[in-house]
Specification:
Length: about 80
Amino acid sequence: MNTEKTTLFSLDEMNKEEIRMNLREIYDALEERGYNPTNQIVGYLISGDLGYISSHKDARKKMQSMDRAKIVEALLNEFQKSER
């Protein structure tokens, strides 16, 4: 391990990774249940109604644990990265 270089720790990056992982699991759970995951997640993000998210594989609980504004921010950041 190089002790001459400072390693940066980014809580924001950890939070983004957690959001990314949770959204993937929620997406997969919704897809397994036969829903259109994109429509369901967008419905939730716009309305705040957790009824759009199935409880299958704790998807609703995972979605509820995240701040909607942070989810939108993470999605927008990913979109911006993919456009460059």
